[in-house]
Structure formats: C-alpha cells, structure tokens
Fold this sequence. Notes:
The protein has a domain at 49-133: Nucleotidyltransferase, domain 5 (2-Layer Sandwich). Helix content is 33%, strand content 19%. It contains three helices and seven strands; from the N terminus they run αββββαβαββ. It has a five-stranded mixed β-sheet, with helices on one face. The longest helix is centred in the first third of the chain and has 18 residues, at 17-34. It starts with 16 loop residues before the first helix and ends with a strand. The relative contact order is 0.18.
Amino acid sequence: xxxxxxxxxxxxxxxxxxxxxxxxxxxxxxxxxxxxxxxxxxxxxxxxxxxxxxxxxxxxxxxxxxxxxxxxxxxxxxxxxxxxxxxxxxxxxxxxxxxxxxxxxxxxxxxxxxxxxxxxxxxxxxxxxxxxxxx
Length: 135
C-alpha cells in the first residue's frame, strides 16, 4: 500500500495593515493639531474668559481695544471720531454685519463700552464682545 504524505497548504503572505492604519491616523491627528485654522489679524489682546463662548463664522468687523485703550481695526489705529466714521463706512453697505469688539482683559471697561456705543451709533444691528472659551 502506497501512502502519500499529506500535502501542507502553502502559507500565504499577509501584510499586517493594523499598524499601518494606526500610523496613518497618528499622522492625521498630528497634522490636524499643528495646523492653524484660525487666522488672527490686528493687534494681540488677551481676551477675557467665559464659559459660554461660541465661535462666530459670519463676515465680521473686528474692533480691537489695546491694553492702553487705543482702538484698532486690523492694524490701523483710530481715534474715537475716526473710528465712528470708519464704522459708518463699513456698515453702510450692510447693516446686518456683526461688529465684534475684542477688548484686552486689562483694559478699562469704559473703553470697550465706547467701542460698542460707536458701533451702535454707526448703525450696527449686531454687536458682540469677544471672549475666550474657559476650558
């Protein structure tokens, strides 16, 4: 009696994809965390913190109030009278544009209120005071 030995199945080569997928996700997370999505313009101010802060995505007019109480739109400095005129020009086309006042947390409150009043007097229907989300 002739006995044939059992043939063994050939091993198939398998590429381990689990570690490759892990590396791709890690790289994706790294690039998402290191990419700067928000472009800040104007002067640097330290915003006050708030628990209910929300992001605004509309086309906005940003008025920055520096720690020493000066008014800026972008990098251009304005006096109170010039700021009122500039806001009237910017709001004239669309009174529904959002005016955001970014006042430094160390600035006197009356300077931020003056910026809000000037925007309201210029015809702004929507006003906002910028804050940082308190984590």
